[in-house]
Amino acid sequence: MPLASRSLARLINSKLRTNTLVGFQLKCFASTQTTDLKEVLRELIPKEQKRVAAFKAEHKDTPIGQVTVDMIYGGMRSIKGLVYDTSVLDANEGIRFRGKTIEECQAELPKAKGGEEPLPEGLFWLLATSQIPTQEQVDWVTREWNNRADIPQHVVTMLNNFPAQLHPMSQFSAAITVLNLNSKFAKAYSDNVPKSKYWEYIYEDSMDLIAKLPTIAAIIYRNLYRDGTAVGAIDPKKDWSWNFATMLGYDNKYFIDLLRLYLTIHSDHEGGNVSAHTSHLVSSALSDPYLSVAAAMNGLAGPLHGLANQEVLIWITKLVEKIGITPTDEQIKQYVLDTLKTSVVPGFGHAVLRKTDPRYTCQREFALKHLPNDNLFKIVSQLYKVVPSILGDIGKVKNPWPNVDAHSGVLLQFYGMKEMNFYTVLFGVSRALGVLAQMIWSRALGFPLERPKSLSTDGLMALVAAQKKAATGDKPKA
Ligand SMILES: CC(C)(COP(=O)(O)OP(=O)(O)OC[C@H]1O[C@@H](n2cnc3c(N)ncnc32)[C@H](O)[C@@H]1OP(=O)(O)O)[C@@H](O)C(=O)NCCC(=O)NCCS
């Protein structure tokens, strides 16, 4: 990279970091203590609209980077082409939700009575408003979600009629799609509601959808793995994760707390990852939140994205079958080398991160506290010791460290959830929090239809040749 571009990149990165570190400007605007999230947004949105409009007016022609041929062929890595406010990912530090690290979220977000992990309700509030909510505000979100949790009979019937062989993620995404029958945004759009009000209907659909996701997920789980037994009713006095765990059939208080942590940390990972980017793209066509989140779930179902948590457990299970439950480091090393002959090592590597994923670290800390002697956890720890140096030695792997998926399955297994095919559905329930919080803002800020320019290979070659000619005066090669 030329020197000028390098210093530009450094400047942008440091700005991004600074913005992340100070947190989101919305904080300064908070003046109300209402518990109604929509009212808080109603107060914040006009101010942020003004701030963004002023920024755009002043800097609309300011370049912020360059695009190389390598980036275009390389999955658009590092191209800064999206605005996504709810979270920002630093390659070394990991994710910050509206400026807060996972550790800070664990310390600052309200918890359930008797629980030690943050309530995802609070994380959603933080993502949507950039403010740490009070206990009353979180309780209000819990009540809203509990009140909106009922799902239409046609969705239940559809789920009950799916063949047992259909992957839980396909069932999940199909159910979310058909919920759009009741989309308030789709109706408002067809009733010609003004653009300035779009966000209000996106908000309503978002709250409805988040409320319904645990019930849908639990029906899928029970249909597939619990003989179709009923999920039971929502307890209006309990939090979202407690109800989810109960509907799934789990009552261990540590599992419930694990679910709170799981649903918090999987929610958002800035805007360029497959699921977030997909929902951002689809909703830019003004597809309603149900259609946009269903699309995101189809991306999450890919083995290089969310499905990796299932893949990790399948891979560790095969490891145990092959070399036993208490293998040596040397045996594990050989197993990893054998894997590399045919596939990637699941749970390791990342498109952006260059250090151990803090989502991995917080799950490891949970395991050290609650299941230090579990044999599978010990294997995960051995993998942490052995895999990075093997991947590092290959030379081409940019990040040899573990990601979130390397750990989650082992924790779920410990509490009895052994159905690996289901794990990505849990991820999906959580990911909806992030992409929907952003969708409210994307419509509030009036983001237009997303439509990047593509080039054919011939067109790209001609463009490069023309640029070379312009720069050097050389004739382009035929
Ligand atoms: C996440 C992932 C898709 C990122 O891909 P990426 O941004 O292209 O990663 P890199 O730039 O480091 O890839 C460079 C090369 O290293 C390989 N590589 C990356 N991670 C690897 C891993 N865990 N095991 C083996 N090889 C790996 C890539 O396949 C690629 O090889 P290629 O040039 O022959 O195609 C990749 O690390 C991966 O496949 N990990 C395993 C699946 C996983 O855990 N996914 C969940 C992510 S949260």
TrEMBL record:
It is found in: Mitochondrion matrix. The active site is at H305, H350, D405. GO terms for biological process: carbohydrate metabolic process; citrate metabolic process; tricarboxylic acid cycle. GO terms for molecular function: citrate synthase activity. It holds the Pfam family Citrate_synt. Gene3D superfamilies: Citrate Synthase, domain 1 (1.10.580.10), Cytochrome P450-Terp, domain 2 (1.10.230.10). This is Citrate synthase.
